[in-house]
Amino acid sequence: MLRLQAAVTPYPVEPSDAGIAAAAGIAVGEVVRFDLNTLGGGPLPGVTAALAGFDPGAALEYGDPSYAQLRVRISELVAAPAERIVPGAGADELIRLITTMVAGTGDAVVILTPAFPMYAVEARLAGATLVEVPRRAPAERQSVADIRDVVTATGARLVWLCTPNNPTADHYPLEEIAALANGLPALVAVDAVYQEFAEVSLGLADEALSPIPLQADLPNLIVLRSLAKAYGLAGARVGYLVAPEPLAARFDAARLPLPIGSPSEAAALGALADRAAARARHAQIVGERDRLAAALARLGCEVLPSVTNFVLVRPPDAHRLESDLALRGLVVRAYPDGPLVDWLRITARDVAENGRLIAALDDLLG
Ligand SMILES: Cc1ncc(COP(=O)(O)O)c(C=O)c1O
């Protein structure tokens, strides 16, 4: 009865806090998630205030399906007209929207690996043919020339470029993004959900690394952003797509009417109202990331340079370290197979949480 005959490969779902606590025999409150790339340091003050002031009556009614206010705030953030912003329930929902709008049965979708797994999940659901362009080594980005060759050879309709890339923590400069999209007969979807951390890491101004201005010359470039990571709203599910006209209107017409619930919308407006607080938090996290990276290197791990809020590291025994840390309630991301099987991805969180992790690493690796 199902359209897809093959089994669906789901997103690799992480164990819950409760599951980890039960396996480790500790209290749920002792579990710290270094595996999800979320924002350490607690909610941003604007979010706390917005949710404290949220009128439950607003949840009784449907919200504004045009998201007029939210789009204006986002348009101020990214310096693009509100009409070119398409809201979604996190970047995840927009990955589905992009994929289903662009690719169908048998169409080629190009994915650079390793990268965020949802591009592949959605391409498979759409019945598209996945074309992977793997890295030769975790620290070696695929060249624009190689990617363009694969897109051309396969006649791909969609290519995903995650920059900064999850999980390798590096990024493509804007010139390379432009060179990739320029004249390519495919839609180039840039997933930039970690952009804010890269700007702080590289000492650049807000939005200095945004690919959005490139859209003036590149009608096939769409940009995916999220408030999940940099604005601490992973659980609220607020993402957005910035597309050139007339693509934006087409995507907007195809999205769900109300993907973002009213409490989440209020939280997003609260977060965006205080960008200075967000930037200060990014600076704090980037400093903590460097402290964590230095500790890991001192303890004999190979640490890839990072412009994000996480690091990719190769410890002497990744799986042993991951399970030893989990027994202490400290959850890091391991890879069961594939090119990163010997690596771990670790999110930098706040000073106290990172301190706990570094103490455990000292104990286990020192
Ligand atoms: C590269 C990348 N894109 C998208 C997402 C999903 O973002 P959201 O929580 O907004 O759906 C993630 C989350 O881990 C990610 O790492």
List the helices and strands and how they pair.
Blueprint lengths: L16 H8 L7 E2 L11 H8 L15 H11 L6 E4 L1 H13 L5 E6 L4 H8 L3 E6 L9 H11 L3 E5 L11 H8 L5 E5 L3 H7 L19 E6 L12 E4 L4 H8 L7 H11 L2 H24 L3 E2 L6 E5 L3 H9 L3 E2 L1 E2 L9 E4 L3 H15 L1
Helix pairs in contact: 2-10, 3-10, 4-5, 6-7, 8-11, 11-13
The structure holds pyridoxal-5'-phosphate.
The site of pyridoxal-5'-phosphate has 13 residues, from α4.
In brief, what are we looking at here?
With 366 residues, the protein is of the alpha/beta class.
Question: Can you offer a commentary on this structure?
Answer:
By secondary structure, the chain is α/β, with parallel strands linked by helices. The protein folds into two domains: 17-43 and 276-365, Aspartate Aminotransferase, domain 1 (Alpha-Beta Complex); 45-274, Aspartate Aminotransferase, domain 2, CATH 3.40.640. Helices cover 39% and strands 14% of the residues. It has 13 helices and 13 strands. The strands form three sheets. A seven-stranded mixed sheet has the order 2-8-7-6-5-3-4, sandwiched between helices. A four-stranded antiparallel sheet has the order 9-10-13-12, covered by helices on one side. Strands 1-11 form a two-stranded parallel ribbon. Helix 8 links the parallel strand 6 (187-191) and strand 7. It is globular and about 55 Å long. It starts with 16 loop residues before the first helix and ends with a helix. The mean pLDDT is 96. The site of pyridoxal-5'-phosphate has 13 residues, from helix 4.
